[in-house]
Amino acid sequence: MLRPRLKHRFTxxxxxxxxxxxxxxxxxxxxxxxxxxxxxxxxxxxCGKDLTTPPQTEGPFYTPDSPQRTSxxxxxxxxxxxxxxxxxxxxxxxPIAGALVDCWHTNDRGEYDNEGYQxxxxxxxxxxxQYRIExxxxxxxxxxxxxxxxxxxxxxxxxxxxxxxxPEESATNQNDFLFDPALLMTVDDGGDTKRxxxxxxxxxx
Length: 205
What we know:
Layout: H1 12-31, E1 81-90, E2 100-104, E3 120-124, E4 130-136, E5 147-153, E6 160-165, H2 170-174, E7 186-188, E8 194-197, E9 200-202
Parallel strand pairs: 1-8, 1-9
Antiparallel strand pairs: 1-4, 2-3, 2-5, 5-6, 7-8
């Protein structure tokens, strides 16, 4: 399989100046299969025993028993479409098949549907631990930055309740008392539909 070529020649001195985190990213980039479609982002963050996804509050607007669906789009919806993809992994970096992924968020005006299930839904990961959420970019709820609410649970394991954030919202992110940079998605703004990615890493017992 052909792999993308680096445009620059890296000397030993240059590599040492880059630091360990940059070197890890470089190695990952060189090892990743090249795709001409450019439709799937490499999910972040990395997995590992000390890199499990941090929990966050579920907030006051969680509704149980949401519909099972991968698309949260409603007929006549307004807002910017976005597709969020990634994997659910164990702290040993193994994909978790059949894990619950439950998502809820505001409409594009920053309002939650507390009477029905608009922009609410759950699904289960496939054999490779992958999930896919088709929805819109949520509006900003007063006092918060832009975010998704998520619950993730492997079978017979504790529930991880957390939130996902947008990197381009730097001003409101810094003013949000709940914001955690470890929960930033990777987001591609190219095209009519945004594409985001995030791996959930669970502590399993």
